[in-house]
Structures are given as C-alpha cells and as structure tokens.
Amino acid sequence: MHRVGSAGNTSNSTRPRKEKRLTYVLNDADNTKHCAGVNCLAVLKSPATDGYDYLFTGSRDGTLKRWALTEDTATCSATFESHIDWVNDAVLVGNKTLISCSSDTTLKAWNYLSDGACVRTLRQHSDYVTCLAAAEKNSNIVASGGLGGEVFIWDVEAALAPVSKSTDPMDEDCSNGISSSGNSLSITSLRTISSSNSISLHTTQSQGYVPIAAKGHKESVYALAMNDNGTLLVSGGTEKVVRIWDARSGTKTMKLRGHTDNIRALLLDSTGRLCLSGSSDSMIRLWDLGQQRCIHSYAVHTDSVWALASTPTFSHVYSGGRDFSLYLTDLATRESILLCTKEHPILQLALHDDSIWAATTDASVHRWPAEGRTPQKVFQRGGSFLAGNLSFSRARASLEGSTPVPVHKEPSFTIPGTPGIVKHEILNNRRHVLTKDTAGSVKLWEITRGVVIENYGQVSFEEKKEELFEKVSIPAWFTVDSRLGSLSVHLDTPQCFSAEMYSTDLNIVGKPEDDKINLARETLKGLLAHWLAKRRQRLGSHASANGEISAGKDIAARSLTHSRIDIDANNTENDSVIYPPFEFSKVAPPSIITEGSQGGPWRKKITDLDGTEDEKDFPWWCLDCVLNNRLPPRENTKCSFYLHPCEGSSFQIHTQGKLSAPRILRIQKVVTYVIEKMVLDKPLDSVNPDGAFGPAVRGGQFQQSTVGGDGHSHSGLKPWQKLKPSIEILCNNQVLPLDMSLATVRAYIWKKPEDLVLNYRAVQGR
Fold it and tell me: Which of 32, 163, 221, 670 has the largest count of CB atoms under 10 Å?
C-alpha cells in the first residue's frame, strides 16, 4: 500500500489549504467497467428473487460494482460510488448490506441490492483502512483494520441505526456523507480500550453507538479474519506477528511469531481453531490456536503471498500473490499444484462453487476452474509438487528449472476492465492533457469538457508531447493526477480563477471577440449545470431574473467575511448559458469529489446531483461563483510593460510611462494602440488615467472595430485605419507575432523578472 496523495483526501497534503478543494474525475465512454486494479471481491449466492449469483468488486478507481452472473455472462447491474480514494476491501453482512473500506479513511455501508445508494459513512480511522473481516454466522459483526495499527470492531445493526441530528449546525461530527437523497448522514462514535483493556466511552459525539477499538498493534494492519460466530479475531501486518483478539471485548489473547516479513492475508476455519497466514516472506503458515503454535509451513510461492481462499472444509487452500501465480495446496499432504499464472499480481481470491475469481492489479477480473467442491480432482491431472517448509526451497527449485506447468492457460471467463491512465502531461494551453494508459494508447483530453478529443493509438508519448508543444503562457489554474486510473482535475481557490481567454480564441459564437472568459468559472458552470437546473426546479419562482438564486444570500454573506470579492465584469448578467467548450458529456459524465461545511468529503456523478446540495456539501467559493457570479481576488491577471520606439525609429508616440494590460492581450492590440496614437492628434481613452491599457477603444470619440488574431478588421474601416500605417512590435530584438499574448512574450521572449519592455517601429521595406 503506497502512501500517495489522494484524489480527494486532503488530510495527507503537506501544503495547508485553507479552502476546500473541488475535484472532478473524468470518465471514459464505458462506465460499466473498472479503470484501475481490483482490490477486493465478494460473492453473493443467488437470492431467491431473480436467481442470479452476484459478484461485488472494489477497485482502485474508487468505485464498487455489482455483477449479475450467469454461466458465461457478467452484467454490471450497479455502480456504488461515494468513496474518494481506493476501495481496499468489502464484505457482505446481513440485512442486504455491503460494507466497504477505503484509503479515504472511511467505511461505507450500502444496500447491496439497490442502485448504488450509500446508506451510511463511518468515520473512525485516522488513516487508510486496508482490510475488513466479517463473521459468517453472526452477520452483525464486522472488523476493520488500517494503517497506524488501528483495529475497530463494529456492531453493524447499531452502527446503521437511525440517529438523532446534532443540535449544533456547525458540529461537523453530526453528519458524514451524502446519501442517495442528498441528505447528510450521521457519524458513529467510538468506544476505546485503553492499554489496561478497560473499556471507556468517548462522549464527545452526539450519538450513542460506539465500536470497540482493539488496541495493541504498533504498526500498520494489512489482514484480518474472524471465526463464524464473531467471537475471535486475528490480525496481521508489518509487525510480522499474528495477533489474536476476543472480538467481544477487544482484549488481546495471544501473539504468534514465525513470519519474517509483513503478513498480508489471513483465514480462520469455522471453529476458530485453525488459522492460515500468507506473508511477504513468500510463506504460507498453518497455526493451531489451541496449541498456540505453527503446525505447518508451505513454501509454494516465489514471492509475497497476498491472497488466500480455502475450501469449505478448510482442507485445501488457494493462494496468490506477487509472483502472478495461483496455487492450490492440500494442507494435510502438502501437495501443491500451479493452477494458473498471468501477467499481474493477485490481490484477492473468492471461491465460487467450482470456480475461483481472482482480482489483480489489472482492471479485469478472471474466473478460473478450481474444483472448489472436490479439489482433489485437480491433483489427478498430474504436475503437482511437494511444498517445502523453508522459503528458500521453493526459490531453489525455481532456479533449478523445475518450474511447474500451470493446469490452465486461460481463464474460463473474464470481466474486462478498461485500461487505466498511468502517465499524463498538462499541455501549455492549459485546456488539454495528454495521457497514456496501461494498453499503451496515447490520448488527448479536453478537460473543460471532460472528453477525449484525439486518440493517437500506441505512439511515443514523449514524441507526441513535443509535437503538441505550443509557445503559449497561461496560468496553471488546475492540477491533475491519475491515482484512480482516470484523470482527476483539482480546482483550488483562488488559483483556479487565474486563467482567462478571449471568447474568439475559444470559438464562442455570439459574444464580442474581446470578451474575457474565465476558464474555471465556465468549467464550474458546466459541471454544475444539471445541479443548477434541478435547484431551480425546486426553488421555482425564487430564481431571480438574472439567474441569481435567493438561497445564495447565505453564501454571499459568508464570502464578505473572508476577503474582497471581484464581480466578473464581463459576465454581470450571470447568464446560465453553457458555452460549447465547457459542455460536459451526459453519456459519460464526470464525478465530483468535494466537501462543504459539514459531513466530510463525498463523490457523486454530476448527473446524480438532485439540487438539494448546498453550502453544507459544496465549498462556499464554488457556490458563490456559480450562483452569485463572484470570483475571489486574483493575482497576476495583469501584465505591466513599457512601450518604447526602436533605436533610430523615425517616429515616436506619447505614452504615460508604464502601461498595464491583461496578460492575455495580444500583440495585435498593441499595434493598434501604437497606430491610433501615431495617426491621431489627440490622445485616446484606451489608456486609463492610471495607465491601464484598454483592450479596445470604448466610449470615446473613436469606436474601433474589433481586430482578429490575423490582424484583419472584421467590420468597416474608420478613416484613420484607411491610412494603413504598418507597425511591428519587438522584444529583445525579436519581431513578435500578432497573435502572441503579453504573457507568452514575457515567458518565452523576455525571460526576465523585470517589467516587460516592448519596442515599436515602422515595418521595414513598406
């Protein structure tokens, strides 16, 4: 388990962030498939209603999926989406409940026959939750373990019982997630067990239920197992020992030593007397808990053992791990056989009748023949070997060339995933991101629409990146990661509002060409268009004529207590029009990961938002932008520069010292300014009293037609333009292209910290 920054979890960030972040996760076309490694599996035998068996898969893409199984098909019938980081484990318990745990530090409860509604979020762990264990016959008990040595034992029925709401609206413990209805859900509290094993109650929270904390691990926990009755719990992790607990009280009963590396998988038989452990030392050990000792060691694998599954009678064990191989071992005779080997490490196994499902670091899940009811049949095919009891014996056999031949070369069935993104690069235009996936395909994404605009196939990522390089400078208004196997785009205020483009550069029809478009504002409008429509439906006549919503007053009041807020002057009408460059796909809509003033982080598809979400769920700055058209103060939106004649120039214009203009202003506008000042006797008001450079002549004696990036006027010429003086602008003795912005000149031509200096001269040879 690698310590990597989460897509949505900001608690591990080294940089303090005062305001809540908004992240959106882009989905490729097929949302019925996982796009990252599958960490966990759970099989549900046919509920009598429809006769289907179900397979539940939890992935590093942050989602769980329910698959309706037949002999030769698997149909994704639900996606469970609420976790904001890797799903690490999942177990089925009574009352149609699926419990999952995640690197986002939470457990979540779901109705496993629903369409994906999260019933409750349980926030007790302070770090990644790595593993779960459930009691087969006592369907009310679940244990969770994680990094930092935390182990909790939950009474599911009590944890999911209805709770009263906190009376303090600012009490963040009173809610902890968003259910399918958009309502906040309550958090459970904790009963801890001190070092003396006496039980004490934390009364800091408003609800009564408290899970048991089994304290004793000093380091991270990676594996848990429980007996059928839920009275015995075993745990293992980086301390290399197997710990045994009384699950009813959380007290330690014994500690078993023998492994020489991390313990990664554990199994208990139904009685709780026998325990199997798999370790990074490549060994499988069988323990007799009554005798408190290891009674057998099995050297089957050549690398870490990460997954174990036993037959119902606990006579045979299936094991998989880092060596890509799946073995079947007879625990009594020590006979072992290689069932299969593929190209990805095996993370978890789930026995299903006479087959076994294998989850790997790949997004696909494979089903292999396993003879789970009569495993001895497999050994009749030959090719088995006797498992040694020392780890080097298996390694030595491998070196001597006696590598076993797998019984099965191909799985009997595969649930395919989609290739996950493993490499990405934000391009200079700050709208496109180049990605490479596990299949080697290189694609170009437009992140303001959340779609792939070009699939280059299997080409060189570095060469394509160089080919797409543009000499353009736009502020870094978002960051990206691919931890979830897809692109997660992060927006942080106020940095995200720093990038602007002219409407003509975005090919927006119907707006003046020199209207400035704030990229983050329009992206947020596109992301929340469905939410805004639903909200307006709910509010009905409360929506004001200019699109502002009366319920936004609370956000407005809060924003005034923070800092000065800028009104977007170019969009004071706050229209609800979503411009084409910011229209997100409804076929594969992105998911939002964010949090508001209460309840903690959450994740939902933008099309699943129902309009009830408010400042308790969204960051205030996000709502203030979308509802009230207010942007926070932004830095570096202007560029200061001096405008001087070239040495030996035959003419000179009068300027008021240092000028200031938007960073995105094109050199064409500077040319136009020089021409105006040169040809006209009187100064124009395109220079404001404070020396600010206007993008065009407005409100003055001369109304200039808009000049496009090609330097040609798009409307009738004024008398002064018919003189056609030819001017060129230089920087560092380089003639500047007319469509280059001041920011680009500063970044690629000027390359100095001092204020930019531009020179003008008449075009030579004309």
Answer: 221
Say if residues 389 and 401 touch (Cβ distance below 8 Å): no
Contact 442, 715 (CB under 8 A): no
Give the span between the Cα atoms of 341 and 255, in whole angstroms. 34
Element (H, E) at 21: none
Region 648-660: what's the mean pLDDT? 76
pLDDT tens digit sequence for 414-441? 999 999 999 999 999 999 999 999 999 9
Q: How many CA atoms lie within 13 A of 371 on its CB side?
A: 18
pLDDT of residue 295: 93
Report residue 118 CA to chain centroid gap.
Answer: 18
Residue 357 exposed, middle or buried by CB count within 10 Å (0-12, 13-18, 19+): buried
Q: What is the rounded distance in angstroms from the CA atom of residue 385 to the CA atom of residue 369?
A: 19
Report d(CA 383, CA 374) in Å as an integer: 18
DSSP-assigned letters across all residues of 570-587: GGTT------GGGPPPSS
pLDDT digits (tens, 9 = 90+) for 4-29: 444 444 444 444 457 899 999 998 76
Residue 93: how many CB atoms within 10 A of its CB? 22
CA distance 650 to 684: 22
Record the tokens describing residue 374, joined without a space: 């009569």
Residue pLDDT, tens place only, 465-523: 999 999 999 999 999 999 999 999 999 999 999 999 999 889 988 888 888 999 999 99
Q: Tell me the pLDDT tens digit for each residue of 77-114.
A: 999 999 999 999 999 998 789 999 999 999 999 999 88
Please, are residues 314 and 289 in contact by the beta-carbon 8 Å criterion?
Answer: no
Output the pLDDT for position 551. Answer: 45
Element (H or E) spanning 757, and its range? Answer: strand 756-762
Residue 189 above 50 pLDDT? Answer: no
- Is the dihedral angle over the CA atoms 655, 657, 662, 667 positive or is it negative? positive
Strand 638-645, strand 756-762: pairing: parallel
In sequence order, which residues have a C-beta less than 8 Å from that of residue 333 and are 6 or more positions away? none
Residue 200 confidence (pLDDT) above 90: no
Token code pair at residue 170: 């600012």
C-alpha gyration radius of the chain: 32
pLDDT at 436: 97
Q: Which sign, positive or negative, has the C-alpha torsion 182, 23, 129, 211?
A: negative
Q: How far apart are CA 521 and CA 251, in angstroms?
A: 54
Nearest residue to 531 (alpha-carbon basis) of 484, 578, 581: 578
* pTM attached to this predicted model: 0.84
DSSP line for 145-211: EEGGG-EEEEEHHHHTS--PPPS-TT-GGG---B-TTS-B-PPP--EEE-TT--EEE--SSSS----
Q: 69 with 55: CB under 8 angstroms?
A: yes
547 vs 550: CA distance, rounded Å: 9
Q: Which of these, 327, 323, 311, lies nearest to 385 by C-alpha position?
A: 327
Residues paired with residue 660 on neighbouring β-strands, in sequence order:
640, 692
pLDDT tens per residue, range 638-647: 899 999 888 8
Residues contacting 712, CB < 8 A, separation 6+: none
CA distances from 326 to 34, 69, 301, 317 (A): 22, 22, 9, 10
Angle between helices 553-562 and 620-628 (to 10 degrees): 120
Starting at the earlier edge strand, list the strands of the sheet with 97-102. Answer: 87-93, 97-102, 106-111, 118-123
| Highest averaged pLDDT of the listed ranges 382-396, 631-645, 720-734 | 631-645
Q: What is the reported pLDDT for 339?
A: 95
